[in-house]
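Task 17 of the worksheet. Students: predict the tertiary structure of the chain below and write it out as structure tokens. Keep your answer in the requested format; marks are given for formatting as well as content.
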Amino acid sequence: QRAAARVLRGARTPAVRTPPVRARSATAGTAPLGLLYERHGEPAAVVQLKDLEVPKLGDRDVHVKMLAAPINPADINMIQGTYPLLLPLPAVGGNEGVGEVLEVGRSVTALKPGDWVIPADAGLGTWRTRGVFPEEMLLKVPSDIPVLCAATLSVNPCTAFRVLADFESLVPGDSIIQNAANSGVGQAVIQIARASGIKTINVVRDRPDLPKLVERLMALGADHVVTEEMLRKPEMKDIFKVPQC
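Model answer:
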């Protein structure tokens, strides 16, 4: 996992189209690098850093330089072979990230060199330095946002939005409670809720650095941050009181 972050720094269940992956020898010169696995297993045992062949640019293809790609639990599960979506082997790891368009095919109209793009679906194989992908597998995003925000845009924030939007019709002044509030999804819930005028009660596990965690979540917009142990205390009932009209 550390190798993935180091190599690419700077540089869910439906079937998806995946670009062809062919490993080349390490003597291939300027070939792009990728973290490739040819069988399922623990990442440390099966993932290898290899040169990759870039297919010829087709009319509707886009040549992309990856700028950043995170490591999510689903990425690890796919390599292990335990995730509902499994790619044809060999495969390049990584489902999320952001890249810069280098070149487009002559029939591509929605993208141009210099644009930033993220995967439109899982299975793109983002743990690589460069790649050629069909246009429909990419979504354009603004290039004036922080690169790490763009690289982590398609998984946790989208999940957080659906948590807030799909189950209840929340309006400004409403309150929600969530556990695992310091997770990627939890932090996104806090920020989206604050922007929407929704109050959050955020439950986290106790830890030695709890004051620092509370400070960080409050800075993101949390209204309350409590531990599982604190929830059992009688005085906690005060934050659950419904305002009287």
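Marker's comment: Residues 85 and 171 are 35 Å apart (CA to CA). The first helix runs from residue 2 to 8.
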